[in-house]
Amino acid sequence: MTEGTTSQEPSPFVLSVGTMSPGDHRDFSFEGPLPVVLDSGRVEEDVGVTVKVSALPDGVVAAGTGSFQATLICHRCLAETSGERSIEFMQVFQPAPDEDGRQLDSDGNIDLEPVVRDEVVLDLPLAPLCRPDCLGLCSVCGTDLNSDPCSGHTDESDHPLAALRQLLDPQDT
Asked: Is 31 helix (H, G, I), strand (E, B) or coil?
């Protein structure tokens, strides 16, 4: 923090591990905000993280788990559904940055926020469903077929391909 700035509460994702010697292990548990908003859903509540940090001769390795509440939007019927999700992660931090720019900083701190955020985003499905047998929306009127069977759209006589159906099923004519 520089002079003249207001004090901010430190991020719970930043862990001080500078005093650890090679072979030392330390356990951390914390909760912290990690707002994530995607087309398929969002995470608005705190993410709970449990991590074990082990010191190596040239850095530290952080291995842990996290849990969070996600609100997802069904890919078929557009209904919101919420549920508990969990992640696992492992990351090595060294004094020199890795290909993702993650490193053990000069004060001996590691920032797990990008690691946890990446795992949370990867855990959210690209096309979530409210349930495996979701029927989706009616393609004619947009009614949710899970709650309303939406009868009345069965007349296909004016459909451009209705004549082909007669060729496939001649006994129905």
From this structure: strand
DSSP code at position 133: T
Query: What DSSP character marks residue 172?
Result: G
Per-residue pLDDT of the chain (173 residues; tens, 9 = 90+): 444 444 467 789 999 998 999 999 999 999 999 988 888 889 988 999 999 999 999 889 999 999 999 999 999 999 999 999 999 999 999 887 777 767 788 888 999 999 999 999 999 998 999 999 999 998 888 889 988 887 766 555 666 776 777 777 666 55
Q: Give this prediction's pTM.
A: 0.76
Give the start-to-end residue ranges of the domains of the chain: 14-123, 135-173
What amino acid is encoded at 155 in this protein? Answer: D
145 neighbors 77 (Cβ within 8 angstroms): yes
Q: Which H/E stretch holds residue 70?
A: strand 59-73
